[in-house]
Amino acid sequence: xxxxxxxxxxxxxxxxxxxxxxxxxxxxxxxxxxxxxxxxxxxxxxxxxxxxxxxxxxxxxxxxxxxxxxxxxxxxxxxxxxxxxxxxx
Length: 89
Hints:
mainly alpha
């Protein structure tokens, strides 16, 4: 069990690293959107991201409902972060 837990901890740390990397791109998008006249939430883009995540989950044997729920939470958090810079609609 100790080895399994160590591997899970390693993966969790890697996931946090990837989330941190994703946040840098969210912050960059928030810098660029005002000049482009774009709001923080773009519903078509949200659904595009969710569809890609669901497809990726299916391809990897991951429950797509779980993946979608996680990403929708991540997307909502990201939009709220952008709204700090852009203001809410």
